[in-house]
Amino acid sequence: MSVLCESAAGWLLDQASFLRAAHPHSPAKATDDKRVKQQHFHAYSFRAEFFQLFQPHLPSLSTAADLEEAEAPQIDQQRPKAKKRKRRYTALNQGELDALEYHAKISGLIKDGSMSLIQEGLNKGFLHPLSGKKENYSKSVPTELNDCCRLAELCEMSKHLHSLNEHELPTLVMEEVKRLSNSDLELLSHITENNTDWTMIITLMGQKYLLPPKSSFLLSDISCMQPLLQSNRKYDVIVLDPPWQNKSVKRSKRYGHLSSWQIKQIPIPELAAADCLVVTWVTNRQKHLQFVKNDLLPHWSVEVLAEWHWVKITRAGEFVFPLDSLHKKPYEVLVLGRVRRSTDSPSRETEADAFPLPNHKIIVSVPCMLHSYKPPLAEILQKYVKSEAKCLELFARSLQPGWTSWGNEVLKFQHIDYFISSETES
Fold first, then answer.
1. 39-94: per-residue pLDDT in tens?
2. How many domains in the chain?
3. 226: alpha, beta or left, given left = phi > 0 and alpha = psi -120 to 50?
4. Cα gap 271→277, rounded to integer Å
5. CATH number for the domain including 305?
6. Range of the domain at 312
7. pLDDT tens digits for range 128-154
8. Smallest Cα–Cα separation from 293: which of 348, 225, 359?
9. pTM of the model
């Protein structure tokens, strides 16, 4: 379970607990396949050190390149005259003014809504005030793996196979995957499914990845989504985290980005069931938020119903950035809506009407220190959709039990090096 506590304001989540539960221990079953039998003897836990965030991020002029965009730096008096570059203090542009106006509207809601959830986390011992415990993890915090996974290369190679086999793209279950263990490309031309009740291991390009129970994935980019479309699956929940274009992404070069026009080409109407719940992660840039609400979701026939906020805190219960920081905000936005098909009877009642979406909910959690790793929404969203809902995550970088995931880095955080097995712990 990922929800530690719930209030009228929202939820306090424990993402680390969710990841532990995603790869449960299962007893060995009678089988002649030694490779399968060995996998049943131990469970996998996501490395806890990725969630040991004890202190807020306090950007300084010497370390934060992004700060240049928020305030004018002081002139270095030690530089030779010829190298001085004076910056003029300029008025805020319209985007910055819109951001300040939006923050003024929601900052009180975020502060008040978070406090009760944080206090409950402190009472339960999940959160604890600054203490010596941080010393245990401050010495060596692991970073993201190097590009040894070669997911981008796999994705590019698989694109050519998609085009060759576009008329024959069934879903592969794990029993079939065993027979294709020597053919990475043949595997990647299909949706791959672990239909068992335990974690399975898959090997691609010499690297091992964990597949949670009842999960499935497709590794491809936006030009090769045909296997998803040809599977004839319609989803009741679609969560997407598009790679929005911004300056920090360009500087870091962590991943590519898509233009607004490219994002609009995602075939949500073809993937969505009637009254599908669509959840879109948005950056704090007002241009992106307005695009999602006024252009993107209407383009997909999705009615905007609510805005929620993910509030990021430390293990001590502090915001990861000051709430009124000009550098970065300690929250991100989610826009929620439902697919509304045109009908002859606009006033008809639908099954979704029994699951009204509340507005301005707060999701509070200690974020994973891996870049852009969002908290799980499965447990939160289940009360707003029918039972046994089919769920899809787009632009995913990890897998969830019971969900289908798609993206060009869909297995990134499933690499076995991000996990510790119970066999190792013992």
1. 444 578 899 889 988 888 765 433 334 433 333 333 344 445 555 555 555 677 88
2. 1
3. alpha
4. 12
5. 3.40.50.150
6. 147-425
7. 886 545 544 444 555 666 555 666 666
8. 359
9. 0.83
